[in-house]
Amino acid sequence: MKILSADQTRQADQATIQAEGIRSEELMERAATALSSWLMERVEPDEPGEIHIFCGPGNNGGDGLVVARQLHEAGYAVRVWLLPAPKHSPDFTLNRQRLPEELPCAELNPQKLPRLLPHTIVLDALFGTGLRRPLTDVAASVVQHLNKAQARVIAVDVPSGLYTDAPQPADSVVVQARYTISFELPKLAFLLPQNAPFVGQWHVLPIGLNEEFIHTSLVDTYYVDAVLLAGRLPQRPQFSHKGTFGHALLLAGSRGKLGAAVLASRACLHGGVGLLTVRVPAAGYDILQISAPEAMALTDPATDFVTELPDLKPYAAIGIGPGIGQEAATRDVLEQLLREADVPLVLDADALNLLGANRELLDLLPPDTLLTPHPKEFERLTEPARDDYHRLELLRNFARQRRCYCVLKGAYTALATPDGTLYFNSTGNPGMATGGSGDVLTGLLLALRTDQRLSPLDAALLGLYAHGRAGDLAAEETGQAGLVAGDIVRYIGPALQKLTTLPARL
């Protein structure tokens, strides 16, 4: 799905109003109804305590007023608090007038802010996506008060004070929500680590914004879900053979790090590659043959690390990096590979560290090479980032400059394409933050890059999504704390099968 900017989100509201011939307050009622339903599914009317709804002077506050009225009508104990302001939006004013007289509603006094008991449910409807400056004065005091309370804060659309597609000014005040309930599409801010303390767990509720406007909106940022990937992984032909899906070469492992070679190899095999040859140091021969017997072991003359590049002619794609080490001879192998390879490349781990230490090698990257750094490895390839937004800018620029596909691993792993488009992955869980998880991703991506039916973009998107989905399936069995990289490998097949059965768009 597309990630719209704050301006595009407002335009989507207006396009919906115009296309349906409705009034703005009707769309507000629709959004608030979705939020009220979400709340009522999780909170019983007789649950002890009042629901406190804090409303700002704009349409975000209008949403809060509608929710207050709907919850009150459903039998919930609700109390509304209004932020003092010289003027209010028309829809706020209308819904303020619609509040039942018996529903408690008062203006906030900064000298005597309401006492909030622990675990009280608080709805933050102070400010939404239109915020353009840091909160000050009474608004800042109210937010600081909410953050000090041990209440269950639910933010409407975005936490108040949070910019949706730009970095926060230093020392700005932002609501620290436990949940953020947004409408129709996620916001870029939800996907960045620096905003996690404010956003909490986020959910998107559909409210029927105009599909034609969203479809035609020009964006350079996407959130990858099953709908976006529908039809991208083709069914296997009835008369397939092992040559149909390509022969991959993986260069991996060094003494003490041969487990990385095993994990990447097994992931590549489970990822559907037709044939796999693994170049390992001589010390890895027995280990690989026992751990991944379906792969062909091609040993290096050296015992402890890879020192020579084999003949590349048989291979449809090549991966290098997991556990390979950073010896000078291995660096030379990487350089030779970059100079000679004329098939898709996947670079990870120590291959990236070698690139970072020898940046002149970056000029040798063939077009459409796929790199999979974590943030520290990416920093070695570029520069330290000021914040998460700056890191995304560096990621876009790196992919454009190097004409490559670059994966920035983490929660909501980001993929940058050669044209600067960003894709954020929707699958995965914190249990995957474990040694070897990246090696599994490398092997899976190598398998998909070997499949000549897939474009570089589709291979990367499918690999990221299936890797995260396999981790989710594994965590259902092991729990997040008990998850290890080998568990992810076991669920690659089921994750890919689900993608294969998704209906293609006509």
Automatic annotation (TrEMBL):
Q: What is the similarity comment for this entry?
A: Belongs to the NnrE/AIBP family.
Residues involved in K(+) binding: N60, D124, S160
Q: Give the SUPFAM superfamilies listed for this entry.
A: Ribokinase-like, YjeF N-terminal domain-like
Q: Which organism is it from?
A: Hymenobacter taeanensis
Renumbered to this chain, the signal peptide range is none
Q: How is the cofactor bound?
A: Binds 1 potassium ion per subunit.
GO biological process entries: metabolite repair; nicotinamide nucleotide metabolic process
According to the UniProt entry, what is the EC number of this protein? Answer: 4.2.1.136, 5.1.99.6
Summary of subunit composition and partner proteins: Homotetramer.
Return the protein name.
Bifunctional NAD(P)H-hydrate repair enzyme
Enumerate the spans annotated as YjeF N-terminal domain. Answer: 9-215
Which reaction(s) are listed as its catalytic activity? (6R)-NADHX = (6S)-NADHX; (6R)-NADPHX = (6S)-NADPHX; (6S)-NADHX + ADP = AMP + phosphate + NADH + H(+); (6S)-NADPHX + ADP = AMP + phosphate + NADPH + H(+)
Query: Which superkingdom does the taxonomy of this entry point to?
Result: Bacteria
Sites binding AMP sit at K409, G410, A411, Y412, T413, G438
